[in-house]
């Protein structure tokens, strides 16, 4: 876990994450090595910006997703006191891109900000997704506590050809597609951190 402290609202947090573990048959290049690469490359880009983001951007590599979201649950418990200050969370966990849709679950007053972010992402070939988004499996435990979520939906048309198989290897990662995904995640994280409005908190989900 690492973060870039916000220049104006350092206690408000934007989370982008992925999970470190993979299935045992392959090398885990798509699930979820690519997601880890997207998060780390986004961190490198955002760290190189001439000024810090308005809010803190936190980069989290969750452990043990495949065996029950162990790392995700631990994160939500250990950071329970600051979850109301989490602006939004999203995860890269559906291969190596490209990102083709964008949607979010935020309070109604912040919907125009999400629409504006979507317009910025549109030159990358990203269109509005249907409905809202849960943010990803590892974001789920914090979303249940009212943290807003965003989804950068990747093209998964061939994802399940390789998912949890011995064919999940690095040769399946297209550099151009993963570059587009990095651009999308880095752009989203920056724009979310700069939002003039808070995205939440939302109501907690019934357990």
Notes on the protein architecture:
The protein is an alpha/beta fold and 207 residues long. 32% of the residues lie in helices and 21% in strands. The chain has a four-stranded mixed β-sheet. Strands 6-5-7 form a three-stranded mixed β-sheet. Helix 1 (29-47) crosses helix 6 and helix 3 packs antiparallel against helix 6.
Question: Which features does this protein show?
Answer:
alpha/beta; 3-stranded mixed sheet; 207 residues; 4-stranded mixed sheet; single chain
Mean model confidence by pLDDT: 95
- Gyration radius over CA: 16 Å
Main beta-sheet annotation: 4 strands, mixed
Tally of contiguous helical segments: 6
Label the overall shape.
globular
Uncertain stretches of 5 or more adjacent residues: none
- Secondary structure category: alpha/beta
* Sequence of strands across the biggest β-sheet: 1-3-2-4
Compute the number of strand runs.
7
Q: Which series of helices and strands comes N to C?
A: EEHEHEEHEHEHH
Strand residues, percent? 15-25%
Task: Summarize the topology.
Elements: E1 2-4, E2 9-19, H1 29-47, E3 55-62, H2 70-78, E4 86-91, E5 99-105, H3 111-121, E6 127-128, H4 140-143, E7 149-154, H5 159-162, H6 175-193
Parallel strand pairs: 2-3, 2-4, 5-6
Antiparallel strand pairs: 1-3, 5-7
Helix pairs in contact: 1-6, 3-6
Describe the structure in brief.
Helix content is 32%, strand content 21%. With 207 residues, the chain is an alpha/beta fold.
């Amino acid at each position: 876990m690492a973060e870039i402290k916000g220049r104006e609202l350092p206690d408000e947090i934007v989370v982008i994450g992925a999970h470190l573990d993979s299935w045992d048959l392959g090398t885990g290049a798509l699930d979820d090595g690519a997601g880890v690469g997207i998060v780390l490359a986004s961190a490198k880009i955002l760290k190189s910006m001439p000024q810090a983001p308005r809010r803190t951007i936190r980069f989290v590599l969750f452990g043990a997703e495949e065996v029950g979201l162990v790392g995700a649950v631990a994160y939500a418990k250990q950071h329970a006191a600051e979850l109301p200050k989490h602006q939004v969370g999203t995860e890269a966990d559906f291969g190596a891109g490209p990102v083709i849709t964008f949607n979010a679950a935020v309070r109604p007053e912040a919907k125009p900000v999400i629409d504006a972010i979507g317009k910025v992402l549109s030159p990358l070939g990203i269109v509005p997704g249907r409905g809202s988004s849960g943010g990803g499996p590892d974001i789920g435990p914090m979303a249940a506590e009212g943290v807003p979520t965003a989804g950068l939906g990747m093209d998964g048309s061939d994802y399940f050809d390789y998912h949890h198989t011995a064919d999940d290897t690095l040769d399946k990662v297209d550099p151009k597609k993963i570059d587009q995904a990095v651009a999308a995640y880095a752009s989203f994280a920056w724009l979310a951190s700069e939002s003039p409005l808070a995205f939440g908190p939302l109501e907690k989900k019934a357990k």
